[in-house]
Please model this.
Amino acid sequence: MRKPGLWEIAVRAEGDSLVRQQKVQQCTDAGTDAVLLMAVVPGQADCHESSIREREGRYDVRTVCYVHDNRVEAHVQLSGSFSTAYEGRFDVKYARPVRHNPGPTRFEGRWLGACTAGMRPGDMVLPNGVTLRIAQRRGQREGREGYSPRGDGGAKAGP
Model:
């Protein structure tokens, strides 16, 4: 779990992708961190399987999710202190091709301090300034029987 507060995450695709570096900000606490940590990875809205393996301070996360009935398999690797900074890489594979798949993508997170005025735990601010209430949107979906944002029946996930 990351230290509660405001995190800035820089995301950039590897290789020849047209996707340039983008930065988002996330306001986290103990109740929202697992959902927000994976929010930078595409296709993590309707997950049915997840596994997390830790080895020597490095985490390997695999998920199987669905976006409009398209199976999405994500592989995420994370490392760092999670109190001040962390880094990682993800790769997402779709069962049916999608228009804009950036391919392997790197990300770096750094703790900025307390959340800014007006932000609530579970909020994510996009590069264009729009605030998404990630935890609130996921909480609304949890009302469906058997739904878990981590695909594990509600067990704690993530570093």
